[in-house]
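queue> holo job accepted (9MR)
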Amino acid sequence: MKPFRLLTVALTALALLAPLPATASPTHGHDESLREAAPRGFRIGTAVAGGGHHETMPYPDPFTADKPYRKLLGTEFSSVSPENQMKWEYLHPERDRYDFTAADAIVRFAQRHHQVVRGHTLLWHSQNPDWLENSDFTPAQLRSILRDHVRKVVGRYRGQIQQWDVANEIFTETGALRTTENIWLRELGPGIIADVFRWAHQADPHAKLFFNDYGVEGVNAKSDAYLALIQQLRAQGVPVHGFSAQGHLSLRYGFPADLETNLNRFSALGLHTAITEVDVRMDLPESGVPTDAQLAQQADYYQRMLSACLNVRGCDSFTIWGFTDKYSWVPVFFEGEGAATVMWDDFSRKPAYHVLRSTLAAGR
Ligand code: 9MR
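queue> job finished
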């Protein structure tokens, strides 16, 4: 071996033996990832892009086809949520046929990368298959279809899903149950909610079972309705374990300053809480490129949402709804808005990414 090479080897060995200076990251040699920066036990998650709006886009399936995307998915996050792949229309395309291909692949990926999974979702008014929505099943048939689905799906992933969004978006802005749009509530009445939680709990006693919604970040009629319903269900012994706010914010509407106060109301009942679908969209200037001021404000919103969760006992899961603008649902659904995630299309980091990492690190 050449002398200078020998010296390099010796110095490297010494460096490895030397204790880390207090300021060094435990993973020196590369930047800390979000999951490395997170406090022990705290889950930092993302949606796994696929299905839904992606099918209308010119690119191939992100999860299976985009290697750099997969790399970041595995290294940056400790929790993953199938963005669409566990919804009824994907899992249960025909009455007598289930298709677990995409969902299984995500759960396997999560296991290989030591990640937990948030299951999404079992009882919802949207993205249900036609055979279900456009049918004339009797209430008894519908009940048995729902029970079989919940048992089959939750049972298949028993022990592999940390949290399930059992019921998604069941209230309107005024705090009324969505009895028109939601086929289950319309045809079977509100009593079906308790049944679904019971069936899910029987199928996987370890999974934490959640109510999940948007527009419930602050204290308002909708979040009040959840608080009342959950108290009532728990008094009846129904296995409800958590309440989560999705966290789809827009710079247009300001930050829900009472987020922490609101989550604390649920935590005080002994519930887990989570923020499950965070993104912060903005009106794009004509150039299509956000201003520095917009990016700074976006970073501030991300930071405040994460801090609120870190401050609340039992809030140990914070999930962003995709980590790159390349695959975000926002521009597809809101004309003129976008740039809602923490990375640009080429995966370079925005201020929001850096602020998430430093906030996680400060919480250790
Ligand atoms: O991000 C999802 C998108 O790909 C789908 O096209 C859309 C269809 O409803 O659903 C999006 O995810 C939603 C989530 O399942 C529930 N909360 C709101 C999310 C954004 O619409």
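queue> The chain has one domain: 4-362.
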